[in-house]
Amino acid sequence: MSRYCFTIIFLSILFGCVNPAHRPKDLGNGYQLILNGVDDRGIVDDREIFAIYGHVVDYRFDSVYIIAIERPRDSVPECDGLPWQEQNKIFYASSFKQYWIINKINGQKWGPYNYQKYLLRRREIGVPEDLKLSTNYNSRSY
Question: Hey, which of 12, 35, 37, 42 would disulfide with 54, CB 3.0 to 4.6 Å?
Fold first, then answer.
């Protein structure tokens, strides 16, 4: 009996202590920010299909739009064939990023864009001025 109780307590502690950063974040209308790898986050829709695969380093959302900065791992060609630690070192040193806009109401997605095209598109489709991405983000933070 004590072994059974110990097992129940152990499993409760183990599964009850999930890092909040690893839990999906609700972005509205079925969209979620999820952990999709050891250190990557992506955005999925209500069918759990990736809208933005990742590595999402910053995002903002309101009732209509999601805007995001992505640094995809395949954007650094020098990483091909290197050990994981070396790939990470080069990846995090890279400054490459691309921008996305998602309309959560109709599911339309724009991107990937460079910064100038992103600014132009957000004006064209009417993304509110107060919905802004950080210009000072930490690509390793959640």
Answer: 42
